[in-house]
Amino acid sequence: MKTLKKIGIFFLILAVLAGIAAVIFVQILKPDYSGKKVLVGLKQNVDVYYDKYGVPHIYGEDEQDAVRALGYVHAQDRLWQMELLRRIGSGGLSEVFGEDLITTDKFFLSLGIDDASKKAIGELDKNTEAVGIISAYLDGVNQFIAEGPTPIEYYLTGIDKKEFSINDVYNTMGYMAFSFAMGHKTDPLLTNIKDKLGPEYLMDLPMHSSSDTEWIKNYPQNKSDSIGNSVTAMVTNALNKLELPLFEGSNSWVIAPEKTKSGKVIFANDPHIGFAQPSVWYEAHIETPNYSKYGYHMAGIPFPVLGHNRNVAYGMTMFENDDVDFYYEENNPSNNNQYKKDGKWVAYKEVTKTIKVKDAEDVTFSFKKSIHGPILNGIADQVVGERPIAMSWIYTQEKNTVVDAFYELSHAENLKTFKKALPKIHAPGLNIMYGDAEGNIGWFATAKLYRIPDSVNTKLVYDKNTRLPYQKEYLDFSENPQAVNPPWHYVYSANNQPDSIAGMLYPGYYLPENRAKRIVQLLEPKDDWDTDTVAKMILDVTSPVHIEIIEDLTELIDRSQLDAEAVALLDSLQSWDGAYNLQSVEATMYTRWVYYLLKNTFKDELGTEMFGQLLSTHLIKRTIAPMVANKKSIWWDNVSTADVVESREVIVQHSFLDAIRSLKESLGPNSTDWTWNKVHTIEHGHPIGQVKALRSFFNVGPFPVHGTREVINNLAFPIDSTGLYKVSSGPSTRRVIDFSDIENSLSILPTGQSGNPFSEHYDDQAEMYVNGKFRKMMMNEEEIKSTASSVLVFSSK
Question: Model-level pTM?
Fold first, then answer.
């Protein structure tokens, strides 16, 4: 017995020691928010005051000193996120996650982001202030890498920390540009539909600009101031599985003094980005004698992509212009290494790349490039057939000055200097929103736009007789869509179609008018906006377009063929206000009805794979309303029923009954149980959270959440047969900036400031976010210093 007792004591001691070691390990891995550190290269001390949500307020006497400190504190909260984002464009994901990511790495290497980064850096003037800021930021990041604790993800994946370089900054910007480029999501899919079914099947899909939707109106102040899912489904799916942010859409509006209670500009912005943990933005407030900015930073980028100070505020939405084109190349029948250019056979350029793969040998592969871009056959498994398809992307083909643009935007102190930076954003296409303390408001579509002949359909893979010329005719920036201080006293963007200045419409992948219509509906009649009412508007969950669709759908139902229960459900839908609140039954019914309507309309012609591809595009969102209104569409007939030609009414009725049956099967026979909170949830996934045993530690959520696709509080989700709407993207922040009370402007993040799961700021905003709450973006120095949760002091020695 004594021996057993000794053994028990021994194991108890071991357990206690293991617990103590675990506690020590956790403490070591936590970010260090207080104390004193020596930061190499500082001219003078920098003080970092952390507020109660972990936002660093950085005070220094020199901008480069402050940015050097930013690099350090950014890295200690987000180093793992920085690591993943820099690896995408350079084809480095397989080194972390293994063979499953080889195809994704091949795609990004062939896309040319890394090559374009190296070219841009080779052309840089190394003596500019922008390069000095980048270098200072990287110094701070790299000192943390050298001295700080290693994030737990490095231990779990078995990779080593490596220094960051300016090439990593450019590669991260390149990934951002790629995720904005919507052209790769639909062009080949539409070509496949045309080839499989015939051109008549494209006529009822809203591919092009439309004259009957809510357009963003131009009002230039002074012109002189100036492959689809079938190709890259594997890339999008891989990045989604890794829980990496994909840029989806966005809202923003800026209200002029004439429409606000205070007589000062109010600025609102909520960029819609794929949800992940950590969230995409890192907030940081910097104050020096010559620079002041409350900014939102992407991991690994020193310049705030969103920001404000006491003089100006700026933000963005996605322009959704078409800057990706696909070309069929014509191979030489006697030499597959040649293609036809200007009537002559010329040699493809052959490129060889090597990919490092975790727990496996390096993979070396080669691909061809034409004058248009990389040949995707053999890179993207979805590209089948003998005809080579080349992908052309503006971002990698034109001189890259995007980093310079964001440096200048973040340092602009008035409208004139702000506008001067905008033409330097060649890609991705962005709507840059602006407001200032002087009462100016503005919206500018930034991208290199070019003229397109009427004979060219930009939504299809270009064939030899219907393609853009090699040398594009670019528009002057003054011909880009824009509005400055318009007489209607507000500007907005909801990724919808802009009106034209250049005498042409701009091809793109614009979102439906739902959010735009609601924004205009709310802004137009009201002239006494304040912070509270704008904050309420940014959380709006009502869709006027869905109400219109319901009206059209219910008119097509033959009530005599319904039982009493179905009639009652139809009546409740007809009286629905279009709001997606947590207890709404109608929201659940409508969404399920729309799924079956789409399935019964499109799947018989497209098949399972292409139907799934169509559901994941912006095109399908724009298709629903016009499709319901189109009585004679060729899509209504079910081609599987050879002896019957189905009408719109038959498909609508059949889909309604399918929805009711499905809801009973999944949520029970009592319709009062079909509430939105049971099907619409949000979970912020971490790449390591893909491992089931680690999910609860790394992931944040799930939570039921109000909102839906294409309302102002835009929470997108994939529609499929499950009937569970797991939110995949939405507002990556909600910001309201009131120039009459700048120190009480509002913000919120979806989870928290830190990407370190041992930090108290890993998820401390998550429940606030789903409940529609805000917190202050603090700018008052006295308040910041007197209420700081902790202070971290950096010194030169």
Answer: 0.91
